[in-house]
Amino acid sequence: MGKLGAFRLTWSVYGFAIVMAAIAIVPGPNFMYSLHGGPAWLALPFAFPYALVRLYLMHRSANPDEKPQVKRFALTSLLIYLPVSLVAAFAGAYSIDSFFGKGAMNLPMGAFYFWALFIFPVGLLVFFIGRLANAL
What we know:
Layout: H1 6-25, H2 39-43, H3 47-61, H4 67-100, H5 111-118, H6 124-135
Helix pairs in contact: 1-3, 1-4, 3-4, 4-5, 5-6
């Protein structure tokens, strides 16, 4: 963890996810999420695994006396990431719908599908729960 500030530490771990969310939310760059196979759809599932790898590397390289701080940061930031990524998914889905026209995010589960990609592979549970709910 060293002498990195909270902002730099958060950016180094979650910067990729923040950029992917910003691309989805800001009109104009959100064309990268076009339903015709925009490149952002291919990169988005790597946002959460990238953050997990960065947290693991931070824990592994920390001094023994810094490990409790790293664990606390990892747990706190992951608990914050889940609801923030959900809000970003809804905002991104709304923005894409507004930019491309109503129904552009006509995905199997709408914004929840988008959120499932933000938290992939954990997001696979969202798919299975949605499929079960639709089947019943």
